Amino acid sequence: MTQPDATKAGIPSGVRDRFDKRGRVGEGGPVEDGPGRRTERRPRRDVVPWDVARALAHAVARPGAVVRRALDEADGCVLATPLVSPVAVPPVDRAAMDGYAVRGSGPWCVAGQVKAGTADPGELADGQATGIVTGAAVPAGATSVVRSEDAVVTGDRLDGPSENGRHIRRAGEECRPGDQLLPAGVVIDPAVLGLAATVGLNRLTVISPPTVAALVTGDELVRQGQSTPGRVRDAIGPMLPGLITRSGAKPIAAVRHLPDSLDQLLSALRETEADLVLVSGSSASGPADHLRPALKTLGADLIVDGVACRPGHPQALAQLPDGRLVVGLPGNPFAALVAFLTLGVAAITRMRGLPLPELTNIAVPGGIPCHPTSTRLVPVRLTAQGAVPVGHGGAAMLRGPATADALAVVAPGPAEAIAARLLPLDPGSRPWGG
Predict the structure, then answer these.
(1) How far apart are CA 44 and CA 37, in angstroms?
(2) Quick one: residue 151, left, alpha or beta (phi over 0 = left, psi -120 to 50 = alpha)?
């Protein structure tokens, strides 16, 4: 668990400067109320650029504990130590094809059959051959394997093409004892699990994935049926479990729905034992937005208090005194998705022990209008010519992201962007070109 006095370690200097200027939740410097009037401690919102917010979320998080896990529990984890082979693979010379193991040049006299599980296949004399199956140990002295489809057998006589070493996997061909197969920091996928099994490992040393809890607030939300004039169907709750698991974290429980109540939010934040808590619908500054008062009551450090991006501006990141992180997601669905991809994914990435990936640049043939001061996150479809906006990218809309391949990260500027970076909509995917 991250400790409060370690939160600044490893933060890039430019990012650390912004971190050092931040106080606890609700703190603020002197502000002018009017001519000659100054009021202390008015809450301030020091909105940070999108890239800085992402870097802060990654920097403040800490990797999980190093643990040993069985192969069937390690998928999606990150290797904490290099994967080193304890054995040679294959351990002996093996047939790479069904056919006949032969010694010398043909024709050969066929004698016997080597089955897949044969421990001692014997030895071939010059001019001898024996039937063999793929993966079986070849007899001592064998110089090649003649494939079944190339073999011509007449009685006990075998004819066929023979090239020294052909279709034999030599001992240690894939690896030898002590070979480093993969470095630390590799995400374990099915191929990695298969490789670990190939070299005889039953467990791997991994970084324990972070646990995440999700709280969705709002008196107006309904979880079944359609929106009505006074009620809104919750679209954020159904998104969060998939986003959490796809980002490599572990949900500790089902999404929890709360009314607009400071007391209930405080209780939920105190009770959850997750490494990261997502709170949706309370991150703005309205009368029903209780996240910041709750964080202040709990003595949290507010690391990000608003991000200069559209949509997703009223997102927040805080650290509780015990080291747990809290990410505030806006109440609009697309804005909440952007906030999760910005702050949530960055924090989870560091908790998994991974670096913050750089985003690939792509051309925008038709151009995308820039915002003068904020980064725009625009749903786009990827084509051979570049990124093409799909529309429907308002803060409350999910139609655009649902039909897009990625989000174009459009830097602030005075005109239109003809290039942008790509932020994956699926937090489990690797950035294009990475």
Answers:
(1) 17
(2) beta
Per-residue pLDDT for 431 more than 70?
Answer: no
Checking if the pLDDT of 140 tops 60, the result is yes
Q: How far apart are CA 250 and CA 254, in angstroms?
A: 11
Residue 393 reports pLDDT greater than 80: yes
The SS3 of residue 198 is helix
Task: Name the pLDDT band for 286 (thresholds 50, 70, 90).
Answer: low
Task: Tally Cβ neighbours within 10 Å of residue 195.
Answer: 18
Question: Which class for 77: exposed (0-12), middle (13-18), buried (19 or more C-beta within 10 A)?
Answer: buried
Distance CA 35, CA 32 (A): 7
Contacts of 357 (CB under 8 A, 6+ apart): 349, 430, 431, 434
Supply the Cα-derived Rg of the chain in whole angstroms. 30
Residue 329 has pLDDT above 50, yes or no: yes
Residues 266, 427, 50: CA angle, nearest 5 degrees: 70
pLDDT tens digits for 245-257?
999 999 999 999 9
**Entry pTM:** 0.85
Torsion sign, CA atoms 383, 385, 389, 390: negative
Q: Half-sphere exposure of residue 279, counting CA atoms within 13 Å on the CB side?
A: 32
Quickly tell me which residue has 């004819």 as its tokens. 159
Amino acid 230: pLDDT: 78
> Tell me, what's the pLDDT at 432?
58
Angstrom distance (rounded) from CA 393 to CA 399: 8
Nearest to 172 by CA among 86, 82, 81: 86
